[in-house]
Write a structure and sequence with these properties.
Elements: H1 2-5, H2 12-24, H3 37-44, H4 48-60, E1 64-66, E2 72-74, E3 95-96, H5 111-123, H6 135-147, E4 155-158, H7 161-172, E5 178-182, H8 187-195, E6 199-203, E7 205-206, E8 209-210, H9 212-220, E9 223-229, H10 242-253, E10 259-263, E11 283-289, H11 291-294, E12 301-305, H12 307-318, H13 326-338, H14 343-363, E13 375-379, H15 383-392, E14 395-396, E15 398-399, E16 410-414, H16 420-434
Parallel strand pairs: 3-14, 5-6, 5-9, 9-10, 10-11
Antiparallel strand pairs: 1-2, 4-12, 7-8, 11-12, 13-16, 15-16
Amino acid sequence: MLGEYGIEGHRAMDIAASVERAIGAGVLAPGQPLPPLRELATDLGVNPNTVASAYRLLRDRGVIETAGRRGSRVRPRPASTARESIRIEIPAGVRDVAAGNPDRALLPPLAPALAAAAARSDQAPVLYGQEAVEPELARLARAAFVADGVPDGPVAVLSGSLDAIERVLATRLKPGDAVAIEDPGWGALLDLVPALGLRAVPMALDDDGPLPEEAERALREGARAIVVTARAQNPTGAAVGAARARQLRAVLRDHPDVLLIEDDHGHGIVDLPLHPLAGCTDNWAFVRSTSKAYGPDLRLAVLTADPVTVDRVRGRQRLGPGWVSRLLQYAVVQLWTSGAVDVAEVSRAYGLRRDALVRALRERGVAAHGRSGMNVWVPVPDETGAVARLLHAGWAVAPGARFRMAAPPGVRLTVSTLTPDDIGPAADAVASAAGTAPGRRYD
């Protein structure tokens, strides 16, 4: 037994480390069951509680998963393996519509804003002990939240949406808690949840966001938190509309203790109105990123939430990086106040490309989805085959496996680099490679 699995040790931490080494060496494969607890304890000559502690450590680290009497097994994709690794090599001459990046031509120049921030810092350098949040940034962010109907709350500044979501989850949940997340959904979030030792509960969605019955089921099954993308959902382009927001609010009001996190990463590139859910639960957080509209390298997001959540996030941030550079924060203030991004024009640019591709695909009998943002989701019967055929035809698309849990196969296309002349050839290639896949739900 031990020769087969390569597990050794007499303390829980040693046994856990042995299992991780066996996984890293390929001795224990993804999805492979671990020895039953009592059997391994007998083989190692230790108390079963020691093995139970080792398995608990591994589960909390996102290395293994447990299924009650069915035992424990290596996660199909350990938490240390990012979904971004599920990608294809793009040969020369192949069009890349897989990367998920914004159009460089629609990003504003950063030099003037950064120069202004540097000049201000030269005059009054930020030192230890000063406020973590640039007051003008907090004022502008709060005014924008109010205009969009987000409830009142203090503001924190984090290093991007994922950093904000991670800190909120970590300060409110404990390992083993369940989190309801969209399926298909943001691959980085699907990685983050198990890496925190949390359990992901998939929620199916359609073009208007999470289905109310799916949210209700997830919460009824014990989810302690729910993450909803407000607009430009990745990868489907879904956006929560007014009617769907009313339905989801009704569901959430019956679960006041649940942590609600809303991700508005599409702010600045989407002109659809926001229909926030925040305020339906006692614990909530609303995250807004600058990456899509102003550039991924800015690494800045503003967070508002109930006071206790913000206080916990700020406290934990002080014990780590301390704060997000005030230079960077003031540069964002400059970008916001200078009108560096014309939201209507940027939204229109992405919308024209996205809508044209969705329309062209549907004209060819292919189900396609993309209500907002820069991505189009195409359900396909055979994901691997579709990706390979499209690559052969000169188009690199993102495999749906990067975004799925229980949802059926699909591929994602990012429209950022498409021109009007590209729409027909791209739709022809997808139609030829993918065939038809009916339905508006992604479950």
